[in-house]
Amino acid sequence: MATTAELFEEPFVADEYIERLVWRTPGGGSRGGPEAFDPKRLLEEFVNHIQELQIMDERIQRKVEKLEQQCQKEAKEFAKKVQELQKSNQIKEAADIIQKLHLIAQELPFDRFSEVKSKIASKYHDLECQLIQEFTGAQRRGEITRMREVAAVLLHFKGYSHCVDVYIKQCQEGAYLRNDIFEDAAILCQRVNKQVGDIFSNPETVLAKLIQNVFEIKLQSFVKDQLEECRKSDAEQYLKSLYDLYTRTTNLSSKLMEFNLGTDKQTFLSKLIKSIFISYLENYIEVETGYLKSRSAMILQRYYDSKNHQKRSIGTGGIQDLKERIRQRTNLPLGPSIDTHGETFLSQEVVVNLLQETKQAFERCHRLSDPSDLPRNAFRIFTILVEFLCIEHIDYALETGLAGIPSSDSRNANLYFLDVVHQANTVFHLFDKQFNDHLMPLISSSPKLSECLQKKKEIIEQMEMKLDTGIDRTLNCMIGQMKHILAAEQKKTDFKPEDENNVLIQYTNACVKVCAYVRKQVEKIKNSMDGKNVDTVLMELGVRFHRLIYEHLQQYSYSCMGGMLAICDVAEYRKCAKDFKIPLVLQLFDTLHALCNLLVVNPDNLKQVCSGEQLANLDKNILHSFVQLRADYRSARLARHFS
Predict the structure, then answer these.
(1) Which of 10-19, 206-215, 436-445 has the weakest average pLDDT?
(2) Which letter does DSSP use for residue 630 in this model?
(3) How many angstroms separate the CA atoms of 578 and 575, rounded?
(4) Which candidate, 251, 271, 248, places its Cα nearest to that of 261?
C-alpha cells in the first residue's frame, strides 16, 4: 500500500501512472536489460495492484463519510446556537416592547380600551412566565450567564420577586443533608454569597431574603420541633435545649454578619432571631426560677434523706426572735441540747450541686434575658440561691449546731460546732466566688447591684453572728471541761504535801491533763478557721484559760515545796500558751509565773521581787492576794516584810 501511494503524483495522469508501475515491475520493461519482457508477471502485478487500489478506495471513502457527518453535526449545532441567540435577543426585544406597552396601558381609560389592555396584560403575563421558566431551567443547568441575562430582563417586571423566590427555593434543594442544620445553613449562605453577585443586580437584597427564608421556615420549624415536645414534660431538658438552640442561632447570626445584607444587618438579624424565640423567651424566667426551686429542694431533700434526718422546723418571728436576742446578749442555751452525733449537716457536695445549678441558671439568664430584664432576672436567681443554700442549708446547719452545743457545766462534752465553723467558712468562700464571678457581671451597671450587695451583707452578718455565738459557747464549754479536769484531778495535798522531803513529781496530774486538752483544742481551732479569725478565737480562749488557772491557783494554800510545784505547773501552762502564738496570752502566763514566785521567795526578798520588771506595774492587792496563799503568811515576820 505504501508503494501504491508513492506512485501518485500531482497532477495525476493515468497513462503516466501505469507507465511508472510498469517500469517498477521486474520483467515489465520493453527495452533490453537483465530480465526479458514477461507478460504473465506484469499481468499478475496489475491484478494485485488493482486490489490494493480497491482497498485504498474503500478506506478513503469511509474517512470522507465520517468527515461529512462531523461537518453536518457542527453545522446543525452552529445553526442552533445562532437560532438561540436570535431567540434570546427576541425575548429581550419583546420584553422591552411589552414592558413599555404595559406602562402605556396603565394610562388608557378602561371603558374604551378594555380589550387592548386585556391583551397587553395577557401577553405581559405569558412573557413573564416564560422568562421565569427560562431562569428556572438555567439555574438547574448551572448556567450563571443565562441566569444573569434573564434576571436583568425580569428586573423591570412584577414577577422579578418570583424569580428571586425560585432562586432561593432551588438553592436550598439538597442543602440540608447533615445532622447539623445550623452548619448546613452557614455553608448554604456562604455558597450563595459567592454566586449571587454574578446573577442579580441587587445581591444584598437577594441574600437577605434567602437568610430570612432560612430563619423563618427552616430554623423556626426545627426549633419548634425540638422544644415543644419537652416544654411541658421536662423543664430541665427544655431549658438546656432552649439555651443550646438560642446559642447556636446567635452563633450563626454572627457568621452571617460578615456578608453584605444592606444598611442595618445587626437589627435585621436580631429581628429574625426574636421572631423564632419570642414565644419561648417571654416566660423564660418563670420556667427558670420554677425549675431552680424544685431542683434545689430535691438536692437538699435527697441529702437529708441520705442522713435519715427529718429537718427540724426553725421558727421565725415572735418567740423565736425573742429567744435569738436573749441568746445573743446572754449566751444562754435556750431549749434542750440536741445530740447531733457529730454530724454538721453541711455537705460540700450539696453546696457544689446547688452552686452548679445556679451557675447554669446565671449563664442561661445572661443569654436568654432581654438586656433590660437581665439585672432583675439575675436578682431573682440570686434570691433562690440565698433561700436554699444560705437559709435552708447553711443557716439550718448553724441552728442545729448551736442547739447541739452542750452547757458549759457538761462533763466530757463533744464539741462539734468547730467542724460546722470549718465547713461554713469553706462554703462562704464558694458562695462569695460565685457572687463575684457569675452574678456581678450581670448586675454591675444596674440599681440591682446595691440591692444584691446589701442582701449578701445581711446574710453574712446574720451567719457570722451565729458563728460568733456558737464559738463563744464552745469556748465556754472548753473552759468548763478544764474546770471538770481540775476539780477531779487537783488535790489540796498537791500544793501542801504531808512530806515536804518526798515530792517526786515535776508537775501535777491535773496540769498534765489540762495541757493535753488545751493543745488538742488549739489544734482544732487552727484547723477550723483561717486568717485573723484563728488569732481572734485563740486570744479569747487564751485569756479565758489564763483566768481559769489564775482563779484556780487562788483556791489553795502553798507550802514551800507546794509553791515550787505550782511554779512548775504554771511553767507547763506557759509552754502550752506558746502554742497559741498570741503575744498577749504568753504575756499573761509570764506574769502569772512571776506571781507564783511570791509563793516561795524568801520573806526578806519579797519587796525586791514585787518591784521587779514583771510585777512592778501590777496592783498591790493582786500581789498581796498571792502572798496570802503562802502557808507561812500568818507569821509575823512575813506580814511585816510585806507591809
Answers:
(1) 10-19
(2) B
(3) 5
(4) 271
Q: In whole angstroms, give the CA distance from residue 605 to residue 609.
A: 6
558 strand-pairing partners:
630
H or E segment at 177?
none
Give me the residue label for grid cell 521486474.
26
Non-local (6+) Cβ contacts of 43 within 8 A are none
Concatenate the DSSP letters of all residues of 560-617 into one string.
HHHHHHHHHHHHHHHHHHHTTT-HHHHHHHHHHHHHHGGGTS-GGGHHHHHTSTTTTT
Q: Strand locations in 25-163, DSSP E?
A: none
Q: What is the rounded average pLDDT of the residues 66-86?
A: 70
Mean pLDDT, residues 399-407: 89
Q: pTM for the complete prediction?
A: 0.73
Most confident of 83-87, 491-495, 548-552: 548-552
More confident residue, 94 or 439: 439
Paired residues of 630 in beta bridges: 558
The 3-class secondary structure across 219-256, one letter per residue, is HHHHHHHHHHHHHCCCHHHHHHHHHHHHHHHHHHHHHH
Contacts of 197 (CB under 8 A, 6+ apart): 203
Long-range contacts of 614-622 (CB under 8 A, 24+ apart): 614/590, 615/591, 618/591, 622/595
∠ Cα 166 172 176 (to 5°) = 165
* pLDDT tens digits along 363-387: 999 999 999 999 999 999 999 999 9
Nearest to 424 by CA among 402, 405, 397: 397
pLDDT for 589 equals 95
Please say whether the beta carbons of 260 and 203 come within 8 A: yes
